[in-house]
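DATA SHEET
Item: assembly model
Revision: 1
Owner: S.N.
Input lines:
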Amino acid sequence: MSVMDLNSDLGESLGAWSMGDDAAMLDIVSSANVACGFHAGDPAGILATLKAAQARGVAVGAHVAYPDLVGFGRRNMDVASPDLVADVIYQIGALQGLARAAGTRIRYVKPHGALYNTIAQDERQARDVIAAIRAVDASLALVALAGSPLVGWAQAAGLRVIAEAFADRAYTPQGQLVSRREKGAVLHDSALVAERMLRLVRDGVVEAVDGSLARVEAQSICVHGDSPGAVEMARAVRMALESDGVVVRPFA
Amino acid sequence: MSVMDLNSDLGESLGAWSMGDDAAMLDIVSSANVACGFHAGDPAGILATLKAAQARGVAVGAHVAYPDLVGFGRRNMDVASPDLVADVIYQIGALQGLARAAGTRIRYVKPHGALYNTIAQDERQARDVIAAIRAVDASLALVALAGSPLVGWAQAAGLRVIAEAFADRAYTPQGQLVSRREKGAVLHDSALVAERMLRLVRDGVVEAVDGSLARVEAQSICVHGDSPGAVEMARAVRMALESDGVVVRPFA
Amino acid sequence: MSVMDLNSDLGESLGAWSMGDDAAMLDIVSSANVACGFHAGDPAGILATLKAAQARGVAVGAHVAYPDLVGFGRRNMDVASPDLVADVIYQIGALQGLARAAGTRIRYVKPHGALYNTIAQDERQARDVIAAIRAVDASLALVALAGSPLVGWAQAAGLRVIAEAFADRAYTPQGQLVSRREKGAVLHDSALVAERMLRLVRDGVVEAVDGSLARVEAQSICVHGDSPGAVEMARAVRMALESDGVVVRPFA
Amino acid sequence: MSVMDLNSDLGESLGAWSMGDDAAMLDIVSSANVACGFHAGDPAGILATLKAAQARGVAVGAHVAYPDLVGFGRRNMDVASPDLVADVIYQIGALQGLARAAGTRIRYVKPHGALYNTIAQDERQARDVIAAIRAVDASLALVALAGSPLVGWAQAAGLRVIAEAFADRAYTPQGQLVSRREKGAVLHDSALVAERMLRLVRDGVVEAVDGSLARVEAQSICVHGDSPGAVEMARAVRMALESDGVVVRPFA
């Protein structure tokens, strides 16, 4: 039996501002990366998302980020190690507290945005995030970009690592993401995306931009929910997997 | 053997801005109310304070507040219940995470500033704070103003309540704090304050503004550390208690 | 020839979070109350709104607020006078700078949310806002709730005051807003609302909740744009006025 | 007659947190770089600093920064051009409003911390800051690092540029600052610093780390006030200049 996890970013509303369709996505994904208040999310909204996830049996992770609401955590910031370590611990702890109140618990950590991209390659910041996770709860898994150096660094430090693929992204022959700055980096055809992800689950490969098959080892697939089209694509991925007998369930 | 707890507000620096003399106060108090980032405190500074408290055997509590850095949590805010409950949970959780990383754990919650004063009397907000504590960890104690309605509300809800007296404040004959707006509300004579607190521990009374003896039931005494004079007064209180055989130790 | 101003709250997006349909509303209103960053609005978004307003000949005002993003400026805050005065000056100045960059200029100030409601009645905070406006530019008009004490306080201080009515709100026989806590306080029928506003312009009266005619002296009508239905209602008001020969144009 | 401007960073307190000794520094410097709320400074504190500067005839500039209170604007941030331009305009405008209320006006812009260092070399961000200044008021001067590419870029764009030297920093033979990461980058001897600055004013040179004379063209000297020792050094610089007949006065 094949199994796969689907994850998405949720809880990203802020006070009067809403973002995404959390209710719809919680019917599609098996893991919810929940904002922690640094790039998005206010405590009451986060708590509501955690309760909704708990009610539907969706696993929850802490979607930790740089402290940057206006930039939505997408801007690179040169945060010193003592600050980065403590910022990540603070966010995980806050989510753990809210998760307890929601009757669930945090099972993993997935860095967001610029922090996610930075630690995939930058060893100093990567080690800070790893140290933070180990300091709070070494049994938390880390969701990391498949094929990135981070995977090895975190495993060597004793963390359980969940490598993830991105459903709507093009890949290089080496199994790396094509940069968003290049044409064709983002895919928009739901049927094609669903088919690609099924192949990923079945054979561990995706068709790269040059037509070759790239090996991508992933235990989770990231889907988006920030537009009606994105929700539709996420649903298509889940249906394609389930139609083929793949069980969608949390990795943790 | 008489015992008493001394508590103070610590961890209130913010990035490049420092406040108070945490090192000095950690040699005086038995319990540290540690800022949670809403009225003061950044994660790295909070973590450093928690580590220092752990190293000296000082118990730590979450000093939760309204979200108001510029106002230092001293401004009344009409926060709706879903927000207040979640804000308090978030802050407790964040501190719990940082405390774990510091090798200690949060033992109590003490609301700060305007939130402290409001919930002493305002039942709606009091019940929100009580609900938040119970949702995260019902074994956490609540530090509350001695003689306030909050004491009873929290006890009735099943929380352990630690009533506290304020070393440097004048009391009414009914055992209430004299409002800061009135003359003589704040005491400045360290020797007098120390003597008053010794009497409080020994006899459960303080001399009120009219010369009568007011009954004040307190399991903790709050001292301040935000000026050299305040640190000196706190030290005088501790020395007076210990000279008379009172053991200063955490209530929790 | 009858003239009337229509105003609405714009520029309330924040980074990745959008709010309202500014483009649609700029085709309907004659005055835009632009967020200043304290309750909503980031500088780039504010600047874009100001440029769009300038391009369509819509007058712009500073929509000043309490410093409270998560609460969207809707929570009462007990801000001391030195802070409130300086907060309002800061926001007006920031908007004036952005307006200059957009080729336009700020013509009025309209407080937002809890600050708006508070200063309609609370003389201390009202005088702080008035003092702030006078300190920056005494020629700026103040948009205030029709029939509120604020109108007189501001006029006595030498400010030009624009009293405003709310298109979608019920009125008491005394010309006051029916509290939102009461049933029927908010109107949802666009045609009815449009007809009421036409009568307001023509006769200076609205039909109160008891069927009597309440006198409401208003030089501007506030319409909303935070939902498709709200935009539709705003458009209906404008069309009703123009169909009857009323010229919709900025008061300033 | 020789003249020189002395500038320092002021208005960097935040609510309950104080920083530096603004009163002492306003007796020493001729120009005050006043925080704008993004890295430091709350509106009431900024206004108080502007009033104090006005009372003593000290010229005021806007000390614009990245939006980062916890990092005190010292962390590099990859802010996109539309945001950076608008952020700078917003801050200048806010300061202009407060300056008007204080009876003075903003005469120049000096970027702070990481933004200062970045735009000294990074053309994209430099052009954003230049565009922002021109959009608000092209007559505002820009204070820039002497010898940096920024000086030329800003002059070519039509801005008046004030090149500045740093009193307490070591220089390379090429007239560049020695990196803070290298030993001896920061000078601590007040008498030596004062003598070096006098030579800078008299001869346009400073003794570089290798003993050679480096040419540094500066119209302003930056001194610090964030510690008693710093204030003492600043005073020594002023006294050395005045004893030798140099007039310390604002460049603008």
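QC remark: Residues 81-101 of chain C form the longest helix (21 residues).
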